[in-house]
Amino acid sequence: MKPLGVAVAGLGRIGVVHTEILSYRVEGARLVAVTDVVEKLARTTGEKFKVKYYTDYDKLLSDPEVEAVFVATPTYLHHDMIVKAFEAGKHVFTEKPITVTVEEAVNVVRKAEKHGLKLMVGYMRRFDDAYMEAMKRIREGSIGKPVAFLNIARDPGAPPGWAQDPKLSGGIFLDMLSHDFDMARYLIGSEVKRLHVMGSAVLYDEIKAKGDLDLVNISFEFENGVYGVLHGSRKSVFGYDLRTEVLGTDGTIYVGNSVDPNLALGTKSGVLFRGVQWFWSRFYEAYVREDQAFVKAVLEDKTPPITGLDGLRVVEIAEACWQSLREGKPVSVTRSI
């Protein structure tokens, strides 16, 4: 089978990860080009991986060797870049979240349908060994019937400047916690029906100044009756901290850091258990598997495992979170498609 010609658009930290993976780890893919508005970054990356480089995204899209584009730019650029790729006849893998708003996400999903092209959203935790095993165990009935989803998500620090602006990133609910909403839907196998948010900005003045939050607690209910609780924080002084539990009628699934069951303490001086400093040290192989899954879906003309509709559902949840915060009460999650 002829390899799929792929390009990476956006060469920040995650774009470089995809570039490396597509160059060496994905059978059936051939990296042919990269692009970034920073000329030095585009040139040095292109030279390093021995591929063409562009600073003009439109020129990359006109390259006949490019059959699929990996969009790894800031969130506020996703909508226009994805739509342009579809109009140029290219399949698209986009980093999460799919877009900033529900309106944009609906348009992207419709464009993919109109042009008959593949669209996959990069929620790599679905390809992580521990989460895949958790899903398998839940579906097999190892914990009986799930009744509760509990999740802690804490990043080591504040995000880059643009991501602190909710108008550009969707704020903490979309920029950071969209992974956790997607995993909740994935493990429980149901849509979020209703939610209630409490939160504030107490950790970073710069985040508060932009109108975003850095500490939130979210209670929610799934359509199948399962209840969930999600705690998110932009600060964890000892490193990346992610823990997930699914409580069932006959047991509990635990996914996350290796924590002493009696006590774990994290301070600036260190932590009593083995922490993870940043997300790709935990999830690198999951990134590899998601890239492989997208290329396989295109080559075999199958539906990608994480669709544009999955991406849209998460944006709907995030917008409901903002509504709940504004109104100070529980709200229902509105389905747009």
TrEMBL record:
Presence of the UniProt keyword Ribosomal protein in the record: no
GFO/IDH/MocA-like oxidoreductase domain span? 131-253
User: PANTHER family from the xrefs?
Assistant: BINDING ROSSMANN FOLD OXIDOREDUCTASE, PUTATIVE (AFU_ORTHOLOGUE AFUA_2G10240)-RELATED, NAD(P)-BINDING ROSSMANN-FOLD SUPERFAMILY PROTEIN-RELATED
* Domain (Gfo/Idh/MocA-like oxidoreductase N-terminal) ranges: 5-123
Q: Does the keyword Oxidoreductase apply?
A: yes
Keywords tagged on the record: Oxidoreductase
The protein's name: Oxidoreductase
Q: Which organism is it from?
A: Infirmifilum uzonense
Q: Report TM segments.
A: none
Instruction: Report which superkingdom the organism of origin falls in.
Output: Archaea
Q: GO terms for molecular function, please?
A: nucleotide binding; oxidoreductase activity
